[in-house]
Design brief:
The protein is an alpha/beta fold and 527 residues long. 32% of the residues lie in helices and 20% in strands. It has a 10-stranded mixed sheet. Helix 2 packs across helix 3 (32-44) and helix 7 packs across helix 8.
Length: 527
């Protein structure tokens, strides 16, 4: 955000005829790709205007209208606008309405400039690297979408995916979204009973899996349920119900047109990973893309020149939102590393691909801390490290910021909202290393502290943390699937307040101080 503001100020300070891209670079000190991306975003939002003939940037219609309104309003009567009336920078028209082409947003719109650019880079345990370009992703997913449509998968149907990190996962997901269906990922660590419970509760219409995961749930899969199995050993052991994944793709013609979604239509279906039973079923609507993009660009600070790696599993929300959907949304490459988690392999991947932007679960950072890379030969290119979940101990914060020499952004959030609070610990700002709060609230969200009766409390008073829904334009959760009691518990003080389930207080600077769980809240800090 600070870099975008710097670009905006450079235009304001420029001569009246405007500023060229080179002028903005000189004024802000930013690299050309970053300056161009920020300027293009500001133009898209109406904050700047661009004349292709002269290649000059000037103030846009929105800024000019603000100036006219400010000039027309007497200073003594000026009032601060309601937060709900101020749209988020990334709450764009693309994520609203009744005809949102999801596959276009996640893939096809990137094709003109990135057809050969890797949509996914896959690193095997043995160190072999393969890539899937945006062009091939569009082709393969269109073909598999035709396969799904042929067996009757249509808008709103749920398709379960039980796949390791790899090309098949991303192809299957995008194909599901091309037919307007709902993607339901399943954790690779789920027991057979947990898989069965989720398949039964969600009423899946098809399954895409590899042999290992199908074998785990084979006795629970209904004979009428189509199973697309990635080719491998013993592929015919489940007779009469299996179609070979890649063979079906190569035999199919691409689906000509992708289905569209309404803003409130679900495109993801997940359950809590904490229980064997399918509890707290969560439909993620398409309008949640606004919050996902904002977090990718502001919370994670993913830049065009970054090599981004989200290490977390794509079976839970943090990995799905910001390791699968988020990179596709902004046209960034997904870096997948398969096999069991291994610290030494992690360092190898960081070094091999020159990863600059890393996000991980707290347990992964703790494991890396125990296997200190400064004692190894790995040459790292990290620019920033983000941890999604619990507040980290001071010694780990010091290790990341001092021994690795990069900022650590500690994030906090919920599967029902995404990441909503963050604190940046920057080695260039010694004061930030000693901050004890979990951070400030992200743009697009408003957090309040309530007492036991639902009344808002003042600064410094501990109580129940809650999202103020009317003042949070990026908050998208409304109800759990088939769980009225759990939904009512989240909104026990009415629809204006979503109860996070944790206790804490806010200080005078707007920083949130977390003190503990007030209930069995479903937060996103489980690995």
């Amino acid at each position: 955000m600070s870099r975008a503001v710097a670009v905006l100020r450079a235009v304001v300070d420029a001569p009246s005829h405007g500023a060229r891209l080179a002028d903005l670079m000189a004024s802000t000190g930013l690299a050309k790709p970053t300056t161009h991306r920020l300027a293009a975003t500001l133009v898209h939002e109406g904050l700047l205007a661009y004349d292709p003939a002269t290649r000059l940037y000037t103030l846009g219609a929105f800024c000019l209208s603000l100036g006219r309104r400010a000039g027309a309003r007497p200073a003594e009567t000026a009032t601060e606008p309601d937060a709900a009336s101020v749209p988020s920078l990334y709450q764009r028209p693309e994520y609203r309405g009744d005809a949102i082409p999801l596959a276009h947003l996640l893939c096809d719109r990137h094709l003109p400039g990135k057809r050969s650019h890797p949509a996914m880079i896959h690193e095997s345990v043995s160190g072999q690297t393969s890539e899937l370009s945006f062009g091939r992703l569009a082709d393969y997913s269109s073909r598999f979408a035709r396969v799904l449509a042929t067996i009757g998968i249509k808008k709103g149907d749920c398709v379960a995916v039980m796949l390791p990190k790899g090309v098949e996962l991303i192809i299957a997901a995008l194909a599901i979204w091309r037919v307007g269906a709902v993607y339901m990922p399943l954790f690779s660590t789920y027991s057979a009973s947990a898989v069965n419970a989720r398949l039964d509760s969600s009423g899946v219409k098809a399954i895409v899996a590899d042999r290992v995961l199908v074998e785990r749930a084979r006795k629970y899969i209904k004979p009428s349920t189509p199973v697309f199995l990635v080719e491998g050993d013993h592929i015919n052991r489940i007779e009469g119900r299996v179609t070979q994944f890649w063979s079906s793709i190569y035999e199919a013609e691409p689906l000509a047109e992708a289905a569209t979604y309404a803003a409130d239509d679900p495109f993801l279906m997940t359950y809590s990973t904490k229980t064997v039973e399918p509890r707290y079923g969560l439909f993620t609507p398409v309008r949640a893309l606004a919050a996902i993009e904002q977090y990718m660009r502001l919370g994670l600070d993913v830049r065009d020149e970054d090599v981004f790696w989200n290490m977390t599993d794509q079976g839970w929300e943090y990995g799905i939102f910001y390791g699968l959907v988020g990179p596709l949304l902004i046209g960034s490459s997904i870096l997948f590393c398969d096999g069991p988690y291994d610290v030494s392999q992690g360092y190898r991947v960081l070094s091999k691909f020159r990863v600059t932007n890393l996000t991980a679960a707290p347990s992964q950072i703790k494991a890396w801390w125990r296997g200190d890379p400064t004692t190894a030969s790995h040459q790292l290119a990290l620019r920033v490290v983000t941890v999604g979940g619990e507040p980290l101990p001071r010694d780990i914060i010091a290790w990341v910021t001092q021994k690795l020499g990069v900022p650590l952004i500690n994030q906090y959030g919920h599967r029902e909202a995404g990441m909503i609070i963050g604190m940046k610990h920057d080695p260039q700002d010694p004061r930030s290393l000693n901050r004890v709060s979990v951070g400030q609230v992200a743009p697009g969200f408003s957090l309040v502290v309530l007492d036991d009766n639902g009344a808002e409390l003042g600064v410094g008073t501990e109580g129940i943390l809650a999202i103020h829904v009317p003042r949070s334009p990026l908050f998208w959760f409304r109800a759990y699937r088939k769980d009225e009691a759990a939904t009512k518990a989240r909104f026990r003080f009415g629809s204006a307040y979503y109860i996070i389930g944790d206790t804490g207080h806010m200080d005078a600077d707007g920083c949130v101080h977390y003190s503990g769980q007030a209930s069995h809240a479903i937060s996103m800090h489980k690995d």
